[in-house]
Amino acid sequence: MSPKTGRPLTENPKDTRIQIRLDKVTLDKLDVCVKVNNSNRSEIIRNGIDLVYAAAKKEK
Q1: Residue 36: inside a domain
Q2: Which of 15, 25, 47, 60 has a CA that sits 20 to 30 A from residue 9's CA?
Q3: How far, rounded to the nearest angstrom, does the alpha carbon of residue 50 sit from its chain's CA centroid?
Protein backbone atom coordinates (compact mmCIF):
# COMPACT_ATOMS: atom_id res chain seq x y z
CA MET A 1 0.00 0.00 0.00
CA SER A 2 1.14 3.51 -0.67
CA PRO A 3 1.56 5.93 2.23
CA LYS A 4 -1.27 8.31 3.03
CA THR A 5 -0.95 11.50 1.01
CA GLY A 6 -2.42 14.96 1.38
CA ARG A 7 -2.41 17.57 4.08
CA PRO A 8 -1.94 16.42 7.66
CA LEU A 9 -5.03 16.29 9.88
CA THR A 10 -5.53 19.07 12.42
CA GLU A 11 -6.91 18.90 15.95
CA ASN A 12 -9.76 21.26 15.06
CA PRO A 13 -10.76 20.71 11.43
CA LYS A 14 -12.92 23.34 9.81
CA ASP A 15 -15.33 20.96 8.14
CA THR A 16 -18.63 22.77 8.76
CA ARG A 17 -19.69 25.13 6.03
CA ILE A 18 -22.24 27.92 6.41
CA GLN A 19 -23.53 30.37 3.86
CA ILE A 20 -24.60 33.94 4.63
CA ARG A 21 -26.08 36.80 2.66
CA LEU A 22 -24.54 40.25 2.98
CA ASP A 23 -25.49 43.60 1.59
CA LYS A 24 -22.90 45.56 -0.39
CA VAL A 25 -22.01 47.88 2.50
CA THR A 26 -21.34 45.02 4.92
CA LEU A 27 -19.31 43.13 2.32
CA ASP A 28 -17.22 46.26 1.70
CA LYS A 29 -16.58 46.55 5.45
CA LEU A 30 -15.53 42.91 5.58
CA ASP A 31 -13.14 43.38 2.66
CA VAL A 32 -11.58 46.43 4.33
CA CYS A 33 -10.99 44.35 7.47
CA VAL A 34 -9.40 41.65 5.31
CA LYS A 35 -6.97 44.15 3.76
CA VAL A 36 -6.10 45.92 7.02
CA ASN A 37 -5.48 42.68 8.90
CA ASN A 38 -3.83 40.88 5.98
CA SER A 39 -6.18 37.96 6.55
CA ASN A 40 -9.11 36.30 4.78
CA ARG A 41 -12.87 36.59 5.09
CA SER A 42 -13.24 33.38 7.09
CA GLU A 43 -10.67 34.41 9.70
CA ILE A 44 -12.25 37.85 10.12
CA ILE A 45 -15.69 36.30 10.61
CA ARG A 46 -14.32 33.76 13.12
CA ASN A 47 -12.60 36.60 15.03
CA GLY A 48 -15.87 38.54 15.07
CA ILE A 49 -17.71 35.54 16.49
CA ASP A 50 -15.03 35.21 19.19
CA LEU A 51 -15.47 38.89 20.12
CA VAL A 52 -19.25 38.66 20.36
CA TYR A 53 -18.99 35.39 22.31
CA ALA A 54 -16.55 36.95 24.81
CA ALA A 55 -18.89 39.89 25.32
CA ALA A 56 -21.84 37.54 25.85
CA LYS A 57 -19.91 35.52 28.41
CA LYS A 58 -18.94 38.73 30.22
CA GLU A 59 -22.60 39.83 30.48
CA LYS A 60 -23.64 36.46 31.87
Answers
A1: yes
A2: 47
A3: 10
Angle of helix 41-59 versus helix 24-37 axis, rounded to 10:
100
Asked if 30 and 44 touch (Cβ cutoff 8 Å), the reply is: yes
- Which amino acid is residue 40, in one-letter code? N
pTM of the model: 0.81
11 belongs to a structural domain: no
7 within some domain:
no
For residue 27, the 8-state DSSP code is H
Domain that holds residue 43: 24-59
Question: Does residue 41 form part of some domain?
Answer: yes
Does residue 9 surpass a pLDDT of 90? no
Residue from 23, 24, 20, 25 nearest 45 by CA: 20
